[in-house]
Design goal:
The structure is a homodimer. By secondary structure, chain A is an alpha/beta fold. In chain A, 30% of the residues lie in helices and 22% in strands. In chain A, the strands form seven sheets. A six-stranded mixed beta sheet of chain A has the order 14-13-12-15-17-16, with helices on both faces. The first copy, chain A, has a six-stranded mixed beta sheet with strand order 28-27-18-19-20-29, sandwiched between helices.
């Protein structure tokens, strides 16, 4: 084995970045320390599979490296599980799992960063034929002729129009300044980027001497906490690199509404909020182009998606109107603008496109997710849910599509939960509760072993057990319900305190103790209440849309966004976050908004499609619907007071309907519940 | 009579500017000292008639002024002459002639500043139906509705599209930022400026609350020495105010080629040349909008014309390619751009349009002059000449149109002439030479009296007699030729030294002494030679075009530009600057380029027309034409060695063909000339 004993040399391709690392360093860590972007959305747990890399074997003279696949440590349990459950190609490794054991040349495949989405897209057949708004055309321009004194720009346009078979072609005036020198230095052979979208006449927006093979487009999903950006080759349609960062606007307010409040209180700070997010995107652009050895001027188009407030702020629009009824969007249809107008540091001729917003609470990100999931092309009644502080809900099929949002609040993100925390090492992400003993076993982020593993005690202190992340909370509440600790009304059954020391009284209610080592981790009555409120809001929103459609059977459920990617769909259904459906038809679609942004970046057909879909989509304002409250009250129960969830019951043994004192609902409800109980 | 003895109060309307002035101050001087723009192109000589004003009579309580028409001094000789020759309305005075004799409220009529052009336009029937690229549309926008969550911008676009009967309407994205506030403050009633030109889809480019009545457009003619700008009401088509300034690029080079050389030597200074001319235009804009009490944001469109080098520099393009063969224009077709891209401080949504350039030496100014004179609509064979350092020549009729330029050099502008000077007080502008006595009488700029007037000696020292301006030189040489002092070959006949002391020997040649008081003012052989070279170049260019057209008879001649406005067309023809033509059909058209710019500003039909005309016009590169030299040699003679000028001879008694030793031309020419002599 090569290597120099304690440290090994690693070169990442195609970026060519290199460094020396201690033996045993996970490849992902090494990549990150060199600024090589490898996507990973599961926090290095070997779940998401996006961090795949391969080893280039052999002797690399230039690099002075003997690289071999076995210079990586053996596959971990997580990696073997991933390889079994998904399809990990033979030469691929998960860089979060594989450790450096010798000198290596590592290839970061351009598709690896979006591997899961590629798989998903293939599965759902949303291959895109590249048809971007930017076309590259190479042409030989006629030299100047005193007898026919047509300007250089005019001869250029004629040559390009002929080469591109366009009847007419405009030219961005700022190109005129440098054009004469460029034409002469290029000996009259140039490549132009021609932009055409919608009903705009085609325009030359950039010029290069000679032949130019690749230009790129940027797809950005601006979330309230994170920003994800992808660089795509506009000709091949391939995603060549991706990067993410946190949204620095967070310092003006943790969540959306607090940012709107901040602007209402400090209207003069609006430019700061706008600048700060644009700067973050510019930093991502710098990272992306450096990753592939390209330049900013190689990026000719950008697609931006985000929720309405992020969308407005990115456009420089004061989002105050979105802070209160009637939640008036400044603009709902797609926006065609220039990168310069958005402060994006790309090619000076680069264009930008923002997908349409569906409604005041259902943004361009929801439109992009819809474009990615394509319910409008499906015969299957599809529910698409993106869960955040607001749940954005799209329901329908090729015949009819509805959209709404429900104010779920931040409980699903671990906020308002007594021992909630963000998904980070030490957070419980999975939990099982034995229905007999009521004892828990759990798994924390950062450790492979479950808590009942004999080795757990040894490794435990590496990360500690610090709290419950969103998926951990969902599983904990669902397992408590399945174990009979929590009634379908959401009450912790105090009578069980006699059976298990894990049930303890806290004031006038009871709590369930998961752990009591570093810190006491308990599920309290208030935590369950917070989950009930959040999931009832989500479910009530779905029900409203189902009402409008005549209560059809839901055939597919797609969960989008970070939360949707991590929760176990079974537990989500056990709690009644989502309606009854064949569990095999409930899947996560990851960052569907980012995928939709890329589709719009790569294809004008997709832009026109989503513009029309958003025009046609029926927007339901949940606050205006009289039945919302009724659905909400019913949805407080697990899984639901009214809806029977037969498909779920066929797959999961739900506890007998056991009720404690009801905490909400009119008398009639209480009577019915007792009768059913 | 009112007034306070030594000083009088004067208020200029509509600007409302006021001041006190010594009795006897010319109104034009008073206006200028207050920054009230009154056009005057003849240097205050009562010739151009553009400085017309009227007196508002009566008691003006607010102004504390008793204003009466007779508070102006009596009409001067120049004013009476103007009133007789042109049509000066009863209530109008020439402000360069009228002196302040008491308190006054003076009205500067909006049409006065372009009076002459209005007259001319009426005469040549180029009334324009306003059809500008900017339309104002007022609409009531539907308020936001949660059930139909269309964005404010989308409802705005729908309301405007309905009001303007447009199927589709885009909106400039930068408008989004302020739109929501504006809509609410305007209570949903707004006026939009909609821009549409060529094949661009219509766009909302500006918004105002409520109703907006007037928006303006800017027409600018950028000359190498002066910049003229007009503000036009885009709805009515009226020119509401005008202003001019010198081109500050002059500090980088007096003439065009010296500026190109400067950039070639100092390429890093290009941005300075660009900025300096744009700043000058911005200063004019400030003056124009202040004049009418408007704001920069009321100006929505701009049309810019200039010769190719001025045109390129204004666009920020390095004009180096225009400095040498093949004189490649960066762009020849019309340029559609934005005011912002040109650094113009207008409404942020304002557009800009540059007329097409015809060829490397025949610019957008020539295109504009062509649009103004409209030979392409005429059955009359028309010659349009704009004389500067280059003479731009357009010849043809509705069937066929040709264009060329000839390098006349700066002689016509008084440069390269021993006693030449710019048109300024003290310059001889007119001269007559008695064919018998050979004694001259002349008139200088700034004095009414001719030099043979008994009063002349008294007033002479007010301005002195300092040199000859362009028109003075033309008249002097022509009168010397008519008086037989100069032969048709351009030689001063030394034999006449015996007859008159005004013919004196200077080295190996002779000179004619006009005056010998303050300074000796003489026409030397070299001066005549310079005029011959310049006029021969011009005439040879015209002849080339005539050749191409089969030597048709010229039915109309139009002289454009400052020089063309001041020279006496008879003398121009006597010297053979211009070809033979009925003298009544030879007229000056003033700043035809500025008029053409206004036509393009006010009418898209005119834009499309001149674009097509310029595409179709046949461009002749004089340097490539083998017959140029032959025509040039023939044109060295007065009026011409070959062409007989029968119409001129019918109107003016030309001297018998008297030759001295020829100075140029092949032997064959000499023989023929002798045979004819």
């Amino acid at each position: 084995m090569a290597g120099n004993g304690k440290r090994a040399r690693v070169v990442f391709q195609p970026s060519g970045r290199r460094g020396e690392f201690p033996i045993g360093t996970p490849l992902l860590d090494a990549a990150r320390s060199l600024g090589v972007y490898v996507e990973s959305v599961c926090g290095g747990r070997g779940i998401c599979g996006r961090c795949q890399v391969s080893v280039s074997e052999g002797r690399f003279a230039k690099e002075k490296i003997d690289s071999a696949a076995d210079h990586l440590g053996p596959a971990t349990e997580a990696e073997l599980r991933y390889a079994t459950l998904r399809d990990l190609a033979r030469d691929r490794r998960l860089s979060c799992q594989a450790t450096i054991e010798g000198d290596l040349v590592v290839d970061v495949p351009v598709d690896a960063q979006t591997n899961r989405q590629v798989v998903r897209k293939r599965a759902e057949n949303v291959d895109v034929t590249p048809d971007s708004a930017i076309t590259l055309v190479t042409a030989r321009v006629a030299e100047p002729d005193m007898e026919t004194p047509l300007g250089d720009a005019d001869r250029l346009r004629r040559a390009l129009a002929a080469a591109a078979d366009l009847p007419r072609l405009a030219l961005d005036p700022p190109l005129l300044a440098g054009m004469q020198k460029l034409l002469r230095e290029a000996n009259w052979q140039v490549t132009a980027a021609i932009w055409q979208d919608d009903d705009a006449p085609p325009r030359v927006v950039a010029l290069w001497p000679g032949e130019k093979q690749h230009v790129y487009g940027l797809a950005v999903d601006i979330g309230s906490t994170t920003i994800a950006a992808h660089l795509c080759d506009l000709q091949s349609g391939r995603t060549v690199t991706s990067a993410g960062t946190s949204n620095p606007q967070i310092r003006f307010g943790e969540d959306l509404m607090s940012r709107v409040s901040y602007i209402q209180m400090n209207p003069e700070k609006l430019p700061d909020l706008v600048r700060t997010v644009r700067e973050a995107v510019n930093a991502l652009i710098a990272k992306l182009v450096a990753d592939i050895g390209a330049q900013r001027s190689d990026v000719l188009d950008a697609v931006i998606v985000g929720n309405p407030i992020m969308h407005h702020l990115f456009l420089g629009i004061d989002p105050t109107e979105l802070g209160g009824a009637p939640f008036a969007l400044a603009v709902s249809e797609a926006v065609h603008t220039t990168a310069t107008d958005l402060g994006l540091e790309l090619n000076p001729g680069a264009r930008a496109y923002l997908l349409p917003c569906i409604a005041g609470h259902v943004g361009a990100d929801a439109a992009a997710a819809t474009l990615s999931v394509r319910p409008f092309d499906s015969d299957a009644m599809t529910l698409l849910v993106d869960i955040g502080t607001n749940a954005e809900i799209v329901l329908g099929d090729r015949h009819r599509l509805l959209a709404a949002s429900s104010p779920t609040g931040p409980a699903f993100e671990g906020a308002e939960i007594s021992c909630g925390q963000r998904a980070a090492p030490g957070a419980i992400e999975r939990i099982r509760i034995d229905p007999e003993t009521l004892e828990p076993r759990y798994k924390v982020i950062g450790l492979d072993q479950w808590s009942d593993d004999p080795e757990f005690a040894e490794v435990r202190d590496q990360v500690g057990v610090t709290g419950l992340c969103g998926s951990g909370i969902i599983e904990a509440v669902a397992e408590l319900y399945l174990a009979g600790v929590v009634t379908s009304d959401g009450l912790i059954d105090g009578a069980l305190a006699e059976k298990s020391p894990r049930i303890v009284q806290k004031g006038r209610t009871f709590a369930y103790v998961i752990a009591d080592d570093d810190v006491e981790l308990t599920i309290r009555q208030t935590d369950i209440r917070a989950i009930q409120l959040a999931k009832a809001a989500l479910y009530a929103g779905v029900k409203l849309l189902l009402d409008k459609l005549g209560e059809p059977e839901i055939q597919r459920i797609r969960l989008a966004g970070a939360f949707g990617s991590y929760i176990d769909t079974k537990y989500a259904m056990v709690l009644g976050l989502i309606p009854d459906c064949d569990l095999s038809e409930v899947t996560s679609v990851g960052n569907a908004a980012g995928t939709g942004a890329r589709l719009a970046l790569l294809s004008r057909v997709q832009r026109r499609r989503i513009e029309q879909v958003v025009r046609d989509i029926e927007k339901i304002e949940t606050a205006l619907e009289p039945r919302f409250q009724e659905h909400f009250v019913n949805a407080m129960a697990f899984p639901n007071k009214r809806d029977p969830f037969p498909k779920l019951r066929a797959a999961v043994a739900l506890p007998e309907q056991k009720t404690a004192e009801p905490q909400a609902g009119p008398d009639g409800d209480r009577r019915r519940r007792r009768r059913r109980g």
